[in-house]
TrEMBL record, chain A:
Name of the protein in question: Iron complex transport system permease protein
Primary subcellular site in the record, as a coarse category: membrane
Any one GO cellular component localisation term in the record: plasma membrane
Subcellular locations according to the entry: Cell membrane
CDD domains, per database record: TM_ABC_iron-siderophores_like
MF term (GO), any: transmembrane transporter activity
GO biological process: siderophore-iron import into cell
Topology in membrane: Multi-pass membrane protein
Family according to the record: Belongs to the binding-protein-dependent transport system permease family. FecCD subfamily.
Lineage: superkingdom: Bacteria
Keyword Transport listed: yes
Automatic annotation (TrEMBL), chain B:
CDD domains: ABC_Iron-Siderophores_B12_Hemin
Pfam families the UniProt entry points to: ABC_tran
UniProt name for this protein: Iron complex transport system ATP-binding protein
Subcellular location, record wording: Cell membrane
Gene source species: Fodinibius sediminis
Length: 358, 348
């Protein structure tokens, strides 16, 4: 990042960043390993490293726990954190609104509807117990349902976005579509049995532990694709910081950029919600934290920063959620909001200016 | 002559297409034939709501014309891509900037977008161009500042620098001096004039400030409320009465002899002024504000002679009225005396 703008004594934004990036990357690596070392079964740290390096730890139970349970969980935390944070950033820049997040286009609500349909309707045909028995297949069904749900809402929003030129109008339509979707879920819940509702409710708490080693690559592909599109969009996003008119006057094809921003957000937010359930806060807060830390809105720097910051934050939240030293695990979405909201309040008050945080 | 033209239009109609099914549209102005030449500062002047912003947005390719043709450096605008348009025309709009956390340098560098690759990395030429733009706009000392912490005047200069970095033959500015105080207004206009004359750019700026337009423009485009545009040298438009006519429609009373708008209907007087020109100029303003008609000829009851008093380095006013003479040493005293005389005249 630091190679441009750095000659003839200009203290450019790019020049101070390599250190920050080094710091963020190391922090992510440290928390990743820390995350692997924690859990209901305590595994000595040297053995943990052995398992990670080559795998002849001598204790196959430990090996299974690390490779099949903890590694997917930590990897999911990294990908979910990055993906949600970047999709939030895309929405904030597109709508030039500091309160926008991945859920504003109703895509998360779409995923919820998909899951609700499967869980609540399936319950009436077979039983929830049957889905539980199918376990892996069952979670596959839920992921599929969530994907279909978010895809349907995405298509709807894309169609509307082709018709509606104004971004604020699109934002409001997105929020309304989300509301309608949630209302459908409510109606469905109203006519469902309590056990079914409980299953759905548990899904809405969010979970990083539901992704198996075999499904991890799907999540990886979705995250890399969405994140890659976001990186390629850096230049149009920078232009959009000044608003639609300025962006266009600087040669940026705004409509096309907007389409790709929506596609990228949908992949990221839709994909993560499908696998992990709705995880709040990360998408709205991480972009603000990253801007505060790096002091720039230049997306070529901000996007990688947000990716790392998102991973870092969700790993940290997951460590807290596992309540080291106890057997309880807290719902991840609650932890992200509990930890994150005060952090954001602190950052905004410290900067004494909401606009500065944007 | 033709290659000197940065932007021209033939029979252009501007306005808004309604989104409804009935393809009805609102025409703001039509039959616009204009030619914006390089090296020239043009002020687009018109009352509020006459379509200045719409015209600027349309010429910049940000707003679709209702009808007619626009040519950018001789090429039809519809034959050009968004990127190609952005290499010919840059804009400074009234859209408010709401972002922070971006340095002046980075913001100006966004102006290189039409030339950079997909990732927006700056080449050494780009960097040179950005540095030149910052230097030319006189904001080198602000280079590292966060744009959030700029004053309105500084921000306007930054946006102008950004449009300079865009390296276009024409710069279109929508109300660039609104919200600016007088020194900043003067500085902005000076900068634009210098740019036009030194770099051969065509500069079009819209404004509703008469005084500014008359002083700053090489050419004036007058947009009246009926959607007609008249182009010409400012002084020609004043002398042939076009100027007066446009503003009369908008309810202004433009005074050709002073080049300013009359705020008050004269109800008293007439008064004849003579003497020191500077003193006369300011006395006239005070009198007109108080509702006196200031006469060109010596006819009338009241004559005021203004003299520079060498001893006390000030002015003195001598009123001659029906054979009497009164001397005063300030405009305030003069006005008090005049209203006393008025009352005395009305009383008997």
């Amino acid at each position: 990042m630091g190679d441009q703008l750095s000659n003839n004594g200009i203290r450019s934004q790019g020049k101070v960043h390599p250190l920050y990036f080094l710091g963020l990357t190391s922090a992510v690596a440290i928390l990743f390993v820390l995350n692997l070392s924690l859990g209901s079964v305590s595994i000595p740290f040297p053995e943990l490293l052995d398992i990670l390096m080559g795998g002849e730890a001598g204790n196959t139970a430990w090996e299974k726990i690390v490779i099949n349970i903890r590694l997917p969980r930590a990897a999911t935390a990294v990908m979910a954190g990055s993906a949600l944070a970047v999709s939030g950033l895309l929405m904030q820049t597109l709508f030039r609104n500091p309160l926008a997040g991945p859920s504003v286009l109703g895509i998360t609500a779409g995923a919820s509807l998909g899951v609700a349909v499967v869980m609540l309707a399936a319950g009436s045909i077979t039983t929830v117990f049957a889905i539980r028995q199918l376990s892996v297949l069952g979670s596959g069904v839920i992921i599929l349902a969530a994907s279909v749900g978010s895809a349907v809402v995405l298509l709807l929003i894309l169609l509307i976005s082709l018709k509606v030129r104004d971004n604020i109008t699109l934002l409001i339509i997105g929020l309304m579509v989300g509301n309608m979707t949630i209302a459908l879920v409510s109606i469905w819940q109203y006519f469902s049995r309590p056990e079914q509702i409980q299953d759905y409710l548990i899904w809405t708490f969010g979970s990083l532990g539901g992704v198996s080693l075999g499904q991890l690559w799907v999540l990886g592909v979705v995250t890399v694709a969405g994140g890659g599109i976001a990186m390629v969009l850096s230049k149009p996003l920078n232009g959009l910081l000044l608003g639609k008119n300025y962006a266009r006057s600087m040669g940026i094809p705004v409509s096309r950029a907007r389409l790709w921003i929506i596609i990228s957000t949908s992949l990221l937010a839709g994909g993560i919600t499908a696998f992990c359930g709705p995880i709040g806060f990360v998408g709205i807060a991480v972009p603000h934290l990253t801007r505060s830390l790096l002091g720039t809105n230049e997306h070529r720097v901000l996007i990688p920063g947000t990716l790392l910051m998102g991973a870092l934050l969700l790993l940290a939240c997951d460590i807290i959620a596992q309540m080291p030293g106890s057997t309880i695990t807290l719902p991840i979405s609650a932890v992200t909001s509990m930890i994150g909201s005060p952090v954001v309040i602190w950052v905004i008050i410290r900067r004494k200016n909401l606009k500065a945080a944007f | 002559m033709e290659e000197q033209s940065a932007i021209s239009s033939r029979d252009l109609a501007i306005g808004f297409r309604s989104a409804g099914r009935r393809r009805a549209s609102l025409t703001v102005a039509d039959h616009i034939d204009i030619n914006l030449r390089r090296g020239e500062v043009v002020c687009l002047l018109g009352p509020n709501g006459s379509g200045k912003s719409t015209l600027i947005r349309t010429l910049a390719g940000l707003h679709a014309p209702l009808d007619g043709n626009i040519y950018l450096s001789g090429e039809h605008i519809t034959d050009l891509s968004v990127k190609e348009i952005s290499r010919r025309v840059s804009t400074v709009l009234t859209d408010r900037l709401t972002i922070g956390n971006i340095s002046v340098y980075d913001l100006v560098a966004f102006g290189r977008s039409p030339y950079t690759g997909w990732f927006g990395s700056l080449s050494p030429e780009d960097e040179e161009r950005v540095a030149w733009a910052i230097e030319s706009a006189g904001i080198a000392h602000l280079r590292e500042r966060d744009v959030l912490h700029l004053s309105d005047g500084e921000r306007q200069k930054v946006m102008i620098a950004r449009s300079l970095a865009q390296d276009t033959s024409a710069i279109l500015l929508d109300e660039p001096t609104a919200h600016l105080d007088l020194p900043n207004r003067v500085a902005t206009i000076r900068l634009l004039r210098a740019l036009a004359h030194e770099t051969g750019k065509a500069v079009l700026l819209s404004t509703h400030e008469l005084d500014l337009a008359l002083k700053a423009a090489d050419t004036l485009w007058l947009l009246n409320q009926k959607g007609r545009i008249t182009a010409g040298t400012p002084e020609d438009l004043v002398l042939d009465g076009t100027f007066e006519a446009v503003f009369e429609q908008a309810g202004f009373d433009f005074d050709r002899s002073t080049g300013s708008v009359r705020l008050h209907e004269p109800s008293r007087g007439p008064v004849f002024l003579s003497g020191d020109p500077t003193g006369t100029f300011w006395t006239r303003r005070a009198l007109e504000r108080s509702g006196y008609r200031v006469n060109e000829s010596e006819k009338g009851d009241i004559r005021i002679e203004i003299a520079v008093n060498q001893r006390i380095c000030g002015f003195s006013w001598i009123i001659q009225c029906r054979g009497d003479a009164y001397s005063h040493s300030s405009v305030r005293e003069l006005l008090v005396e005049l209203s006393r005389l008025d009352e005395a005249k009305d009383a008997p």
